[in-house]
Amino acid sequence: MKSVRPFRTRSRRLGTTLVAGLAVLALGACTGNEKNDDDQDLGGGTTQADSGSNDEAGDKIVIGFSAPAADHGWMASITDSAKKVADQYDDVELRVASGTNDVNLQISQVETFINDKVDAIVLLPFDGAAMTPVALKAMQAGIPVINVDREFDDPNAARVTVLGDNYGMGVSAGAYICSQIGDKSDAVVAEIAGIDSLPLTQERSQGFKDALADCGQDVDNRVAADFTVEGGEEAAANLLQAAPKIDAIWNHDDDQGVGVLAAIKNAGRDEFFMVGGAGSANAMRSIQAGDSVLQATVIYPSTQAADGIKLARLLGQQKNMSDLVEVEVPRTVQLYAPVVTKDNVDQFIDTAFES
């Protein structure tokens, strides 16, 4: 039997998450909310900007963009969203390097941007440590670097860092599961992680563990996959075989969740509910339809680079985030990790990525 511990607030970590949420609201407000006729409107643009707003056309700027290869849905959306936001601004020329998982090639891409004297660089590094020296070189050349998702080793290598909240994902998933199962002493909670050697997986798992502890629960069964459909199916099959009874599952990633749901269907299991991770469109459609055990997913925004493009434009045109008192763009923007359920899915599905 599990002992039920009294609820306690993890103030430092959860406080950071709340501040991050406010930062996102400020960013969205300062860059405009005009709608266009595109299927996916990410907000902003010079076409219908009010006079005096940050979206009003300014000096033409050139932004270099580089990211890893689009080898799964989330990463494909990173680049697609960046292009889409840039297209909404008549005063932005976006130069997109070919997506690559070759660190040396990505270094050469950034060096080309430096030689071309672009106004800013938005960079999601394949390897943050390996890309740090060339990012420092760009900063020393007077080109602001906006670092997306995977941090550099040296904070001076970026003017702005845009991050998701991996720890916060785990907290959100755990808190939601707690809200559904409460202090049920015999509840069985399972976890299907991503790649265990990655810090992001470790942070997600720690946040999940910490949030579950607040309602007297813990992780009873845990397996790790590899962020792929095949890996998710294999890991889930192993989990289901090892655990004859489960009340709730958190799967870290909706791309691998395609395989996880296939394994669950093949096993004929439906006595539990599942929470996904990252926030894919197919996961949200399933939540809308109520056609599987998937009941919720936790957002890890695939629009981080799009926010990076908007911030690069502000920096290049020497503007600030107008909803803040601060006269300069902040050094760090950490995006919130909300839980998407059937009740609020309509607010998020338009910017979700396809697995």
Automatic annotation (TrEMBL):
GO cellular component: cell envelope
Entry-linked InterPro entries: Peripla_BP_I, SBP_2_dom
Signal peptide residue numbers: 1-31
Keywords, ordered alphabetically: Signal
Compartments in which it is found: Cell envelope
Region (Disordered): 35-57
Main location: other
Pfam families hit by this protein: Peripla_BP_4
Coiled coil: none
Positions of the Periplasmic binding protein domain: 63-315
PROSITE patterns found in the cross-reference section: PROKAR_LIPOPROTEIN
GO molecular function: carbohydrate binding
Similarity remark: Belongs to the bacterial solute-binding protein 2 family.
Protein name: Substrate-binding domain-containing protein
Organism: Nocardioides anomalus
